[in-house]
Write a structure and sequence with these properties.
The complex is a heterodimer of chains A (92) and B (587). Chain A is an all-alpha fold and 92 residues long. Chain A is 57% helix and 2% strand. The interface between A and B is large, with 49 and 55 residues.
Chain lengths: 92, 587
Amino acid sequence: MSASSDPGTPVSKPSEDPLSRKLRLGFFAVLGLLVVLNVVIRPHHPHFGLEAFPGFWAVFGVAGAIFLGRAAKGLAHTILGKDEDYYDRTEP
Amino acid sequence: MGSFVHPSIGFGMAAALVWVLPVRIGRWLPIAAAAAAIASVLSMQPGSYAAVSYLGLTLGMGRVDALAVVFAHVFAIQALIGFVYAFHIEDRWQHVAASTYITGAFGCVFAADFVTLFIFWEMMSVASTFLIWLNRAPASTKAGIRYFLFHIFGGLLLLAGLLLRHQATGTFAFDAIDPGSARYYDMLIMLGFCVNAAVIPLHAWLPDAYPEATVTGAVFMSAFTTKTAVYVLLRSFSGFEILGIMGTLMTIYGVVYATIENNARRILAYHIVSQVGYMVAGVGVGTAMTVNGACAHAYAHILYKGLLFMGAGTLLYASGTAKLSNLGGLFRRMPWAFFWYMIAAVSISGFPLFSGFVSKTMTITGAAEAHHTWLALGMEFAAVGTFLSVGIKLPYFAWFSKPDCGIELKPVPMNMYVAMGAAGILCFLIGVYPDFLYKLLPNPVEYTPYTAWHVLQSLLLLGFTGLGFYILRYKLTPEAKINLDFDYVYRMIGRFVMALARIIGDRIDFWWSEFYARVGLRGLLAAASGSSWFDKKAIDGVVDGTALGVRAIGEKATRVQTGKIQDYLASAMVLAMVVAVGVWLFL
């Protein structure tokens, strides 16, 4: 995870410093390496069919994180999220 | 029979002595009690000790077996770490409350029957309430009352269950209950336990109250209440399938809320719900491996969750806020807090070389091998959420993300860093030398955490969770909001009861006025002329005096409201404890 960008500003800041860029590329390289390793290293006794496919847990991780983030924020923005003084305001 | 010194004795004595001694001396006593507890746990032999006759019952306060020892072991260590972290505190009542609370926790762990368990269980509820109130803020007072009422409710479920059970079976024995023949009273007991284990939907007291507790109180509470509940569930309700399902739901429920929360300590509180879910699921699946997994995870969890609360507590202590939307960019000014926090964060996320890896994977693999594939997948999904919210989101938005939030920081006492360092080193040691933990577990361990596949699988899962965060990093920015949870329901029940009481009160008032007008008034008029002289001469003097008295009490009460009430209640609690122990010993 690169700590390069400032949240609130649009993606792709024009002046990314070289260290952040290296960190980000390094991170992607490690992820790629892990998937390549997964082609060689497989579970001996997969607990279910899909687990035997290389990259299953990579897809599970990234899809799970995105799904969770979007679903949770969706809930927060529709029914769950209230102003911080919500309970104080509605007190009799 | 071997030797057994009940660790509660030391903590009980510490609680009483801190109450009377100057705090500069007194605050050493809980540390001494914790050191004595460690020595006691290391030297104790399995067996039954400390049976007491009470009201015709034989109460067992000293059942020592492998299951009890795992929990006592980590309780003693965490008590020591917690009291070192709290060493700088000059408020003696916090030490009294924490010591009493831990007295209760050890009492529960070694209890051999439901009556003993209930007594120590309630002691924990009362003492932990003070750890919230002693934060001395209006929000803490309110949250503490809600917390206390909810735990009274849980305690009553337990009490009703154990009494009905005694009626039906004639015994208070606190042993394993067979899932096939469990009756309604067993279910009541289980529900009482589930309140303290924060099983959804009975969990809301936890994220409601823990963020309002004192900085150090939250560190203690994160370790003992829910894990004592896991222990009693393991003792009695192993193999109850419903717990396997509820536990897995808890793991996911907790991370969903943690993903959207803004208050750092509330994020961590939701992660207790999530992490305890793994343990409850382990209890529910109930195989030797998942029971081991639940114990191991409780052990590892107490250490890293305490460290997470210490890290977030250090942020709160130094900056005065735990809200991520107000923090940011503190890395340059608080690097060590960040470092130790991250040790705990990678531990909870289950990174290889850290403690969560050797315990969490055991429960998940155990569930998968028992053919609960969906439960195992649910727990893996929760592991993604754990790393996303507590491993990346919280530290990123507290220590990085913005240039610097510019908040002025109070210096952090050295003892807080010492405690964090000790906890961090233990998290790492358990990760690289899991046999230390595995040797303590109640069943033989047939699980090797460090296989090439387990390591690769964890790295894939967590690495790609990191990628998910990278993609979503703007979307996940914390917002200054709160999120509705089940505490909404009991807040509304409270309001309903208040409204009902008001209606009934109005009725009584109305009825009394009518009665007064019809019956009282005539007689009163006759009496009035006679008493008017007396009234003028005598009563007015008294009333004026009373008014002055009332004003004085009012002023006192105002002061009481600003925090002193906790002191008086704490004294009352310690007094009640002394009386209870006296009655216990001499009846």
